[in-house]
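Q: Sequence in, structure out?
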Amino acid sequence: MVITKKMNPVLKGRKAALLAFTPAFLTASAAAYVPLEAGLVMPAFAVLITMVIAGLLILRQQAGAGLHSASVRSPGRRAGEGPAGLLRELAKAADAPESGAQADLMLRGRPALALVGGSVAGSERFPEPSLLPSIRRLSADETSRIRLVTQAFEADRIELHLQPIVSLPQAKIRFYEVLARLRLADGTLLAPAEFLPILECAGRASDFDRRILIRAMAVARHLMARGSEAIVGVNLSAHAIVEPGFLWSLAGLLDSSPEILGRIVLELPQHSWRHLDGDLKAALASLRERGVPFSLDRAADLRFDAKALADLGIRFMKLPADLMIKAAEQQDGRYAGPELDVRDFSSTLRRQGIRLIAERVDQDHMVPVLADLGVPLAQGFAFAAPRPVKPEIAGEQELPRPFGLEDAPTRLRRAG
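A: Exactly. Output:
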């Protein structure tokens, strides 16, 4: 259907052809089937004319409905006001104020995103609030903490602490894990859980991990110079691991000190091991060919495939001590449905060249239980707390403290 300038609907296409030929078709049919001498020709023509008129009325009504919907979709044309009218109608449809002053007041009183409550099938709505990113304004304390952490990181106030990993049941030191701390300007010492999320949000996780690795390499050289066979483990952030080129850059960094290859263990979270893409696997393979051992860290469950982990180059696996002890208390030795009995963990991993480490062993009564399970290595406050590394050993620079804080007490959150 097309519309003339006088807004008179004109039939077009199949409907027009059907309406035009319907009287002729029906007339021919009537002439063939209705005898002329019966006196029924005029009534038949009357019925045909009535049908044609009814069809015209129906089509005209449909044309009027189409014009109305078109005018609703184009409020600016209907009002004859061009773009200005269109904007005004859209503003009214969104329940927005027309004047600039009113709009400014409303924008100040509303949040940055106005969410429409409820949902109607087939209508356009904003997403559910739970699916939108948080736009909460930071408090003054949060803003201050971010500023202090950023300043401390830029000033390189990173300190290393070492926590030993011991053999069971002899409790002989076999391993050291590097734990990073960040000292704020007021002397407060922060654990990674308190400052690392801020660095990750700022995109500085990879830079932080490189600094820690460089210091850990200095510690490994120091241990070798003393004749120690202990190796050093370095945690890698999940954010840094997925950064393009980060793992490849570690290969070049370790190549600069070939004498310590094999003495530095790179620890990746369980989540990262389960979500490796092709590029990450290739980068890890390059490190593995250089003799760099890997460790699975920060496990959230006890499910694993020992053969698949060994093929990736994993030589150590850290599992939470409390989860293993809870599994051992079950009749079948399973906790939340792991594939293996916890009593078989150590032997299964050992056959694949992987050594099991029980981490977060913070209470003495946990030690004999782990020893009965055959766990060869353990780490936690039950053996030793993390101890700071001397700045000259880790290659750190002595940074001056603010005046009057030389004797301030160190506030360290327990971590390890």
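Residues 2-82 form one domain.
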